[in-house]
Amino acid sequence: MKIIVTDEVTGEGLALLRSDPRVHLDIRLGLSKEALLGCIGEYDAIITRSGTTVDRALLDAASNLKIVARAGVGIDNVDVDYASAKGVIVVNAPFGNTNSAAEHTLALLLAACRHVPAANASLKSGEWKRAKFTGVELKGKTAGVIGLGKVGGRVALRLKAFECEVLGCDPYVGAKRGQDLGVPLVDLEELCRSCDIITVHTPLNEETRGMIGADQLALMKDGVILLNVARGGILDEPMLLAALQSGKVSLAAVDVFSEEPPASDLMRTLIAQDRLVVTPHLGANTQEAQVNVAIDVSKEILAYLDRAPLENAVNLPRFDPAVMVQMRPYFKLMAILSEFGLQLMKGNLDRVTFGFSGAIASHDCSPLTVSGLAALLDRAVDEPVNMVNAGLVAERMGLVVEEHKSTQGGAFSNLITLTLEGAWGTRVVSGTLFEGTPRIVGLRDYAMDFLPEPHMLLLSYVDRPGMIGKIGTVLGQHEINIAFMSLGRREKKGEAMVVLSVDSPVPAPVVEELRKATEATFLQALHLPSA
Question: Per-residue b/e over 231-262, b at no fewer than 16 CB within 10 Å?
Fold first, then answer.
């Protein structure tokens, strides 16, 4: 295998490749775009960091390319979708900087609590002042870790070593993960109310962007200590600035920013705050981490040569073509069921069951199971989750995954049922295809039948006259148009379940207004992008 290395990667990390007689390694740094396009056709693999853009032009020119290895976590510089279309495997190194990021979190926390940057600057300027730099200890404090993945779990253990009481918040990990760490799992509101120190370690996505904002800050103790060593944008920066200025937040430490490098006036003002310790995205910037990521991608390339499983591939595997022909119409349905089910959860997920009934059960359903699992987990962890690594991610999170099949489909020729279980209870959603179009035909033990739409509303309440009118009135007052409605119930004046499709998102205040008007036992606004 002929491999080109186009960015600075440690020699120690490449030693595995150099020692393998099957590998010819060329280190060619600083190539122009034109020069790289001119030579890439010679190579079977490329190892990059962030300095090389693996785009369509490069992939088109790379006639022999079989694997792209990104020596780091981020793959923003790789067109993964186009690589998949070209049959090129993309691997990264999501674990190589785990320890580095965890240690940097503790370094920033201690530096903030003991005023290390300010005291250092004061002494070097010729001053000898001590009283103004009186710090606070970690011992006895309650620390909250949001996100108990590979970095957050290590941070939690290190905080326990400092004799902190540690709480965790992560709706995507099973109870076993919390037990293994010795960290009680709580929801975000309880964590915000209870903790003296709060640190975030989640990926940045639609769900986590601005996750720590005005509402969460209002719940926190006066004088709380906040840290963000995960991704810029998780912590609402204007709100953090206001909280530092008011004293609501006594100390903070930030390694990542929503704009890097920070350039706006707001960001400059934030960074200049005396009680804020900042670093320029150094979480993964250690010698050891750089060696680790290089070793990790080298192992992936050798695994490819050995035809062994790739643990850190980030694009789709290749299933049997005949299986994919049978499964392809159901991938969209599975994505919709996963999105729907995720939003019905009210806590940590412990078990996922994928049920296949009818004619579909006579086929290999593993592509659907893996794609559904990937859709469920993609928002839970830092690295991209897809059909290659979903099983490994689920295992690491302590999530039990099961697949049940029955050729008896009942009223439907084919039926897919997703069952999600946790301490909060069980959520069940079933779907099928009508003339190739996904439809949801079951919620819990209610028979329903509706076409999934991007914006929906799900309510359960005690059935009584006038309820539909109340729902329509509240939504009408806020100019939210109802496209259709599906009603399910077991008996007259029993529990009713209503699903509505609406033309626009339902804001949280309107949801609360509906809850009061209907005395709903369950109410959830849903967003289904796959629909």
Answer: bbbbbbbebbbebbeeebbbbbbbbbbbeeeb
Tell me if 505 sits within 8 A of 454, measured CB to CB.
no
Please tell me the distance from the alpha carbon of residue 472 to that of residue 483, in angstroms, as a whole number: 11
Q: How wide is the angle at C-alpha 318 spanned by C-alphas 315 and 321, nearest 5°? A: 140
Q: Which DSSP letter does residue 313 get?
A: B
- Measuring CA to CA, which residue among 479, 461, 446 is closest to residue 517? 461
Structural tokens at position 260? 């890097």
Q: How far apart are CA 240 and CA 256, in angstroms?
A: 13
pLDDT in tens, 246-266: 999 999 999 999 998 899 999
Write down the pLDDT at residue 173: 86
pLDDT at 489 over 90: no
pLDDT higher than 70, residue 491: no
Q: Which residues are catalytic?
A: 231, 260, 281
Q: Domains in the chain, start-ordered, CATH in brackets?
A: 2-96+288-305 (3.40.50.720), 98-278 (3.40.50.720), 316-443 (3.30.1330.90), 453-531 (3.30.70.260)
Residue 167 neighbours by CB distance under 10 Å: 21
- Beta strands across the sheet bearing 522-527: 482-489, 495-502, 455-462, 522-527
How far, in Å, CA of 462 to CA of 475, rounded? Answer: 19
CA-nearest of 100, 104, 111, 170 to 135 is 111
pLDDT tier for residue 477 given thresholds of 50, 70 and 90: very high
pLDDT band at 367 (very low <50, low <70, confident <90, very high): confident
pTM of the complete model: 0.76
Q: What is the pLDDT of residues 370-404, one digit of tens each?
A: 889 988 887 666 666 767 678 878 888 889 999 99
Per the listing, tokens 């119409």 go with 329
Give the span between the Cα atoms of 423 and 347, in whole angstroms. Answer: 7
> What is the helix (H) or strand (E) element at residue 292, kind and residue range?
helix 287-305
Burial 424-444 (b: 16+ CB within 10 A, else e): beebbbbbbbeeeebbbbbbb
User: What distance in Å separates the CA atoms of residue 11 and residue 13, rounded to the nearest whole number?
Assistant: 5
Give the phi and the psi of residue 290 in degrees, each rounded to 5: -65, -35
As a residue count, the chain comes to 531
> Could you tell me if 318 and 80 are in contact, meaning their C-beta atoms sit under 8 angstroms apart?
no
Confidence of residue 282 (pLDDT cuts 50, 70, 90): very high
